[in-house]
Amino acid sequence: MRPGAAEGDELRRLRARLRLLSVVFLLAFASVGMRLVDLERRYGGEERAAGSGLEEQRGPTGAWRRDLRDRNGRLVATSVPGLALAVDPSRLPDRRQAARALARVLSGVEEAELRKRFRAGKRFAWVKRRLSPAEQRAVQELGLPGLLFLPAARRVYPQRSLLAHLLGGVDVDGRGLAGVEFALDRTLTDPRSEEALRLAVDVRVQQLLREELLAAYRRFRAKGACGLVLDVRSGELLALASLPDFDPNRFAEATPEQRRNRCTGSVYELGSLFKVITAAAALGSGRVDLADRFDATQPLRIGRNRIDDDHAKRRWLSVPEILAFSSNIGIVQMSFAAGAEVQRRYLERLGLRDPLRVELAAREQPLWPREWKDIVLATVAFGHGIAVTPLHFARAVAALVGDGRLRRATLVKGGGGVLRDLELPPQLIRDLRFLLWLTVERGTGQRARVPGYLVGGKTGTADKPLPGGRGYRSGEVVSSFVGLFPIEDPRYLVLVLLDEPQGTEATFGFRYGGWTAAPAVGRVIARAGPLLGVPPSTPRARRALLARLQVYPVVNGRTGRREEGFAALRPGG
Amino acid sequence: MGDDGVMSRVAVMLLFLLAGVASLVLGLKHEVARLEEERRAVLAAVKQLEGEIRVLRARYAYLARPQRLAALAAELGMEPATASRMVALEDIGTRAELAWALRVVALPLPSGASVPVRARPVVPVIGEVGR
Questions:
Q1: Is ipTM strictly over 0.90?
Q2: Do domains A68-198 and A206-551 have the same CATH topology?
Q3: pLDDT tens digit sequence for A355-409
Q4: A68-198: what CATH class?
Q5: How far is the C-alpha of A281 from the C-alpha of A275, rounded, in Å?
Q6: Is A79 annotated in the active site?
Q7: Hey, how many other C-beta atoms are within 10 angstroms of the C-beta on B119?
Q8: Chain A residues 120-179 with CB within 8 Å of chain B
């Protein structure tokens, strides 16, 4: 090989290697360049957005809660997405100026409060927890750095104050504070279930109950009112209203008086309503018969106490008449005839001593007599000296006049259940239905009569006790009425209670339950019955009740006639 | 051309092949990233729409609240049903019974005149109860 040719080969080889090397470098640079393009495409946009400090995604504030629907699927509570505004004060160029600017564009935000929150050294401060779209735009236009728009679930109650006490409300963090929202907080925030929870309430029935309750509350200038509709056969509450009430969308603004649920969170001495239970105990004991008669010619004296009638007839009264005319004198004698043990046992078996189990935050315990002296037995017979919530009482009457089974009252559809079987003789249930029908047909509850339905019920008017059990307030009463329809086979119970109603010209100044609460119950029944598909009572059912009236006549008159042979007052034991 | 030249050409070709495959992989990667982004955008849009649906449902529930419907129904001259307007199916007369009710028969009176009479259908009088 020539030396020149060898050099030429060497040179070519070198060139080839250089070409290869340059290709390798080219590819290496190209791959680095492509990687840069890749990185820019993948992360560049987000870095730009984060760099502006305008939006930063975090976990939502305010728990996401399950929707609540009524028994027919109507939406009553839902969570909707919203925005909350926070700020990183350390990134604000001028905290004072930022506070002023934000307070100017946001409603309900105070500049001084913001200045306090934007203290130096803090990295996070809330500005507003619920931001409207217009406010969001206005804040964005301020162009401030360090602002954080955070997703925040907001609880909305489309029916507004209609279901106030039933639903309750939540705080800004979405925690239940009252009503079903509090009682079922864990169920409603369970992330495993997104399905809406069906409540027992029927918004149509709730609407008409609240409307009638509100009308009575205003007409009689009452301090408060409670109304409820209970399904006798299932224990489900189709409606529950307490007045005054509030808008659950603005729960924080409600006063303590507005938040008070009078149906479950307050106990009352219910007065003559309790005569239903006393009559059941007396008749159920077998010591009193529907045909028995009791001396109501003059007030009863027990020790230093005198018991008299509001609607005094001053004559002997039969058991049906005692109920129909709501005679205290008569019912006390019936209670004494049955005895304290029987009376106590009935009250206990009817759940009137138990804590209330219902899906609400407000649940008051009954006030039970400390000892059962004669005077206590006498006053308990007509609903004084013992205090229960209206729901306690409604549940007990539904058991007595329904099928003899005490059911758990519930606000959740299908949530009821039998607590205990009272094992009442069917004849006793029939007698009680007759007595309640009689009270509406001929007695103190006549203003609850409804065309088309046979209604049974009982009036109640109770003096309000002084705190500490030091007697009763003069002139302050609780008036109430409990009604059941159709009484021949009860489906629904309606209870209305007015706290401290005032008489009107139309009621001749009377504040009795028969004048104030009974008409409201009658109107609720008249409107709710057809809505709930309850067929009108048949003439045959009416004839059957009228036939019993022939056996146990009720005379609405006063006589001075005294009857012989009555066994005098027998204090029971 | 020697072995070295062939080798270097093969190497260059392989490198170009490698570059081609790399750019293909990169392209695929970008496509995946793009689709991923698109998926995220669709999910975000779905979430936003779900939120909007929730707001609309709440709005509908607000507009269809019984209080408002009752007021609108009253404006339209509608009124709630009463118990006296309800009747059980078995209480409604049959076609034959009702046909009798429509038939007018002339009843001769002792004076010689006649009055038109119609049969009353055998159905209970509704709304009689509780009056």
A1: no
A2: no
A3: 999 999 888 999 999 888 889 999 999 999 999 999 999 999 999 999 999 999 9
A4: alpha beta
A5: 10
A6: no
A7: 14
A8: 156, 158-160, 162
